[in-house]
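DATA SHEET
Item: assembly model
Revision: 1
Owner: S.N.
Input lines:
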Amino acid sequence: MFCEYNSITTNQPACHLHHDVVFLLPMENKVRVRFAPSPTGGLHLGGVRTVLYNYLFARKHGGDFILRIEDTDQSRYVPGAEEYIYETLKWCGLEPDESPRHGGKSGPYRQSERKESYRKYAEQLVEKGHAYYAFDTAEDLDAMRSRLRTEANPNPQYDHTVRNQMRNSLALSAAETKSLLENKTPYVIRIRMPEHETVTFHDLIRGDVTFDTSIVDDKVLLKADGMPTYHLAVVVDDHLMKITHAFRGEEWLPSAPVHVLLWRYLFGEEAMPKWAHLPLILGPSGKLSKRDGARYGFPVFAMNWQDPKTGEMTEGFREKGFLPEAFLNLLAMLGWNDGSEQEVFSKQELVDKFSIDKVHRSGAKFDYDKARWFNHEWIRKLPASAYSQQVKEYFAQQDLQVADNAYFEQVLELVKDRCTLLSDFWEHSYFFFRAPKEWDTEPLRSKWNSSREAFFKSLSKSLTSISSWTAASIETVFRQLAEQAGIKPGELQLPLRIMLVGGKFGPGVFQIAEVLGKEETVSRIDMALTQFDLR
RNA sequence: GCCGCGUUCGUCUAAGGGCUAGGACACCACCCUUUCACGGUGGUGAUACGGGUUCGAAUCCCGUACGCGGUACCA
């Protein structure tokens, strides 16, 4: 077995040297990768994971990470989608080195703004006989497909078997073609797939993949509106932008032979980037979709996305209460593993340990429970100050404006172990900000009596004059008083808890009291004493 | 249909010819806790099937089945 990077570095059969080998690349072969989304809506899990792997690979090898906007289909243009991409990358901490917004030496980075650069390559292919003009109308294509459609061939292709019966420069005479062109008849340029050729290319994840060119159709390269299709644009731009490694979803694998051929015809196959087709992220059934999220109640997009046309809102991981650290972590593990049993990785650890040959070959089904677990781990791991601003927003939704940051963070620190999502902080800590107005006294009903009431009255007094206000000192006073009253301290803890928070929940009672502070604690006990209804 | 890719506990995965196939999520039990959680300990649970190759196969080869992807002037 030989190392994937052999062709640009060394011929030693030493796969375990991958990382070192790439570092030795000469300057002109500097690693350059790109993420090339189509701005048609929210960015979903799979998209962000592709960004992540690109980013990780670039950082690991000291390369460049480029964001290229593939907006060649004007009919699918969605306002706001590009902004959404920037904001998502920013939130994730995966910002590109070059992009429409960040600039760079390979711009413009929006394909719609590069429109003029594609035509000449398509024409070049026509001249060399690797492509041809096709004048077929949509109706012509429909007619051809319905004429040829059978049970054995449900999806007839525009390929070598029918191209001679269509209206294109291969079937028409040179004079006819010339006149059609001169009369400005709309046309596309299609690749002329060779017959019975075998195209093999090496995929960094899957190894050698082979296709028979006879079964691939004559893909459109340049559309009637002059825009390139993905197939032409990806090859031309990867060349112009000096991309060295191209990572994309596995759904692109079937069209890879078209791209390989284009490279061969246009720039030489030896200049082609190394390909890696990433495994898909699956939903409960098939490729993860927005629908799955709606149906099963978990987010699919990185952040909230509102469709500008329908107004429909799709909830994102960010708003759901995920930490970017956790989001990245869970995405990284959906298709990659370093071979150890470690599961919680920081971004820096991922950069250090990532390697493309450890990326899995098979698709991974997204498990929302596991995703939540990652978030829980990160909430515990990070100091509350790292996410207190975000939690504040959830509190604001409950009409609570946080005034005292120190107090706020102290509370978050105390309850963070019990929270899975940032949105959970509210239910686990609201009582630190709002004194109870109602008390769940049901658990006390049978045990409440005048001696207990007396105990709490004296507790209130003693606490008022306590000198050091810590959980430990409060507990000491509490126990002493209980002993004097002849009541087991354990039996008095629940009543105290209910007085302080209103019910059977929350962290340790004495810790609650400590954080609440002397004044508030005493006031809540006094209030409860006057309001308890135990009859 | 055709082409391509894939297949280890329910899910994410480890094990690259050699130990009772390891871990995590979820689930169950127990412990901790006089609240609710968190946590801790333990348990149930997998190499799709059939053939080879080999002293020895989850691992290599072939076939079958199943799953997924693609089959647009969408990306």
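QC remark: Residues 1-25 of chain A have pLDDT under 50 and may be disordered.
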